Amino acid sequence: MNGPPFRILVAKLGLDGHDRGAKVIARGLRDRGFEVIYTGIRQTPAMVARAALQEDVDLLAISILSGAHNTLVPRVINLLREQGQADVPVLLGGIIPEVDRPAMRAAGVAEIFGPGTTIGETADWILAALGRDE
Predict the structure, then answer these.
(1) By CB neighbour count within 10 A (0-12 exposed, 13-18 middle, 19+ buried), where does 92 fall?
(2) What is d(CA 85, CA 30) in angstroms, rounded to the nearest whole number?
(3) pTM across the whole model
(4) Directed axis angle between helix 45-54 and helix 69-82, to 10°?
(5) What is the pLDDT of residues 85-119, one digit of tens each?
(6) Do 29 and 36 touch, CB atoms closer than 8 A?
(7) Domains identified in the chain, total number
(8) By residue range, what is the domain housing residue 83?
């Protein structure tokens, strides 16, 4: 990766305790040269937004499998805006039904990755979104 590494916060939002995918993403992005901070499980929207601010991240990656994305993700995005981080792209991974994807994008989610997305696809999207070629 050219230049200093981008800082990525990988967050497990809500009561979802299934964190294997988030850990795989965190490790894979770290292996690709990103600086990755992982929140651990069972984070509230306020905890995630606060961590994004404290860690001065370039991008927030939220993993959610619980089905609570329609409530929790927009709350995180609103909190980011309130604390002056409206420019931080938010990507969403996990089980997000097709019917819910337009609402997630309308709330401010930049991209949605589902099961089967590779680390390479995710890393390439992040680099393009943040304006840097590998």
Answers:
(1) buried
(2) 23
(3) 0.94
(4) 40
(5) 999 999 999 989 999 999 999 999 999 999 999 99
(6) yes
(7) 1
(8) 7-129
